[in-house]
Every structure is written in structure tokens, then in C-alpha cells.
Amino acid sequence: xxxxxxxxxxxxxxxxxxxxxxxxxxxxxxxxxxxxxxxxxxxxxxxxxxxxxxxxxxxxxxxxxxxxxxxxxxxxxxxxxxxxxxxxxxxxxxxxxxxxxxxxxxxxxxxxxxxxxxxxxxxxxxxxxxxxxxxxxxxxxxxxxxxxxxxxxxxxxxxxxxxxxxxxxxxxxxxxxxxxxxxxxxxxxxxxxxxxxxxxxxxxxxxxxxxxxxxxxxxxxxxxxxxxxxxxxxxxxxxxxxxxxxxxxxxxxxxxxxxxxxxxxxxxxxxxxxxxxxxxxxxxxxxxxxxxxxxxxxxxxxxxxx
Length: 306
Hints:
This protein has 306 residues and is of the alpha/beta class. The protein has two domains: 4-54 and 232-291, no CATH class; 70-227, Rossmann fold, CATH 3.40.50.
């Protein structure tokens, strides 16, 4: 028998430490208010809420900036340089030479945000700002895809499309196959421009499907940090739940009751169930109990579709 109250009393103190040391946008009081408003005196619900919060992947603004830098300099430029030297059977390269090559690559790269609805609130836009203000990318090297004229491609060898995350991968498919991208795709083929999708986070199952798709046959999909089924809250492979007491099944039954009675699902877009918070925003494939709002449910962070 699970002692819900004892666990809650112990772990609420741990949550305070985790929140103050690792979280940035949300205060400890935001979390406790969310728990109290939605679960009240229901200690079983509080127990599940604490467990989920302690296993939430929270990325501060600096975490996202670090992932962006890692993706660009290590996973894109680093791999390009490595391939070039391996092809020449020369794996020894001086630091100053490598820096020079990186700067040359950077100067010949153009960046566009991955936009689904062409709205300024979309998550690809802040990453373009970080490229300019944090990674010193020139403003002449960034643009929206609808403003990208053919003359801009004159000295480009690489096109990088940036976004913060990919859960189902549907947004990437829609963007790449949109009418507004047709001319850009054709120019990249004609001028032999390498195209990269740079994602800070990505679900491995969806990323594998994208890479195997004929639509992305010659496209480099780069993911800085991979999420797996082990990160999905209600997955059988998540070690969060106690197997001996069938705790995962009990939790699913509990949140299914919440869904029926209060209109808030525990599964996000495409039935995904990641507990992921990106500083001050949430993807729609993160747990809806974090972002949905109804007359009987308070959200933790608001989304445009809350």
C-alpha cells in the first residue's frame, strides 16, 4: 500500500530545492498553487502531481542557448570539418585552423525559423534572436522564408532551419512541403546548398521516421538532445512508476477519471506524454495537465491553445 501523504510531505521539500536550483521561469509557489488549485485535499492526485513534477525536463533560457550553440558549432560545423579531413585522410588539425574553418562556414550560412503559421509567437523566432544576440550571427544572414529572395543565395553554402523541438514531426513536414518553401527548395538543389534542420530537442521515434522519409532524403536533421520512450511519463519503459504495485496503471486510471470529469486529457498531441517545459513555453505534445485550462482546471503555463 502506497503511503501517499508521507511521500508527498517528503518530496514537496525536494521539489522546492529542485525548483529554486534548476528552474527559472516558474517559482515554487507557482507549482504549489497549481497542485492545490487542481487537487485540493485529494492526496492521491497530489502524490501523482509531485512524482510528475520531479521527473519533468525543465530547460532554462541558458540551457536552450547552450543547446543551440552545441548544435551549430559541434553537430553541424564540427561534423562538416571532420568529414572533410577524414576524406583527405588527415585527422590532425590545429585549433587556429579549425576556428578559421568554422568562421568561414558561419559566414556562408543562412538561417530561417521553422514557422507553421507565420506568426511571431512561434518558437522558431526566439532562436533566430539568440543566433544574432548570443552567437554573433549577422542580421544579414537571417530572414523569414517568405522574405528570402534569390539574390540572398549568392554566397550561401548552407541553409539552416531552426526550431526548438519536434514531437510528432508533423510541423516539420508541413513546413518543408508548404507552397512558400517550393522555390527555396529548388534554389538549394540548383546551387548545391546543404540544408539542415536544427532542433534543440526531438523524440527519437519521430526523428527516425523523418530521416527515413523520401521527403527528407538529402536533408540533414540535427537534434541536439534526444528524447525517448523512457522520458514519456506513462510509458512502460519509464522507471518513474513502481511495477510491483501496478502504479503506472493506477496513475493512468486516475488521470482518465480527471479527463472524463474535468475535460483535461493526460495525453498531448498525437497521444504523446512528455513532461517537458522549455523555460516559459510548452510544446503541445507535453502533458496537457500542465497547459490546458477549463472552468475546473488551472494550468501551470499558458499556451496559445490553452
